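Journal club prep — side note

Before the paper discussion, L.F. wants everyone to see what a predicted structure for a comparable chain looks like in token form. Sequence:
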Amino acid sequence: MIMRFMEALPDLDRLSVAEKDDLIRALYAQVGFLTAQVALLSAKVAELEGRLSLNSQNSSKPPSSDGLGRPKPKSQRQKG
């Protein structure tokens, strides 16, 4: 749902108490909607960042999917 935002703040001195109450309710609803959208998009960003950090060493992806920036393999030999 896309909410339409007011272009300019109305002259509050000319509004009745009931109109001000309606304005407050509308703005409160928009704040609630936008807060929910921010939470949803933040979760999506976190998921996508997690997917970007996957490579063949920490997932079941094949090594060929790592591309040119793949991590160097770690040696199994012990220093001695």
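L.F.'s comment for the group: Residues 17-52 form the longest helix (36 residues). Keep this in mind when we get to the figures.
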